[in-house]
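[Meeting: bench + compute handoff]

Bench side (C.D.) handed over the final construct sequence. Compute side (W.E.) agreed to return the predicted structure before the next meeting so the bench team could plan truncations. Sequence as handed over:
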Amino acid sequence: MKRLSAVLSVLLVVMFVLSACGDSWTYVNWDKGKLEAIQKSVDEGHMVGYLDPDNVVLEYITRHYPDKDKVDMSAMPSCNKEGEDYMCDVKLKDGGTLRLWLYQPVKKGKGGIWVVRAYKVINK
């Protein structure tokens, strides 16, 4: 019984530490019809900014991110391809990082629009 109690105590500490690390993503809910309409518009040669991950990040922060006043907008995002998606980091004014997870919801590959799937703040 003491051993089980010790294991449970350790497990609770680990769970607390992980939850305090800011490792949870905030997912963005997009309307599927809106995404399909944007993809159609891009396919017709309009709204081509959705093809550039850096542009998508800056537009998302400007129009949708709830704490945009905390973002250092003088620094460009740093985007890296990870599998089929992009992970983009933007500096925060307090020295932390805003990480945005981009994906292609309608069409994969060349010509597919990019949107923010989720974001999280990584403390310095």
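W.E. noted at the follow-up: DSSP finds three helices and five strands in the chain. C.D. will use this when planning the next construct.
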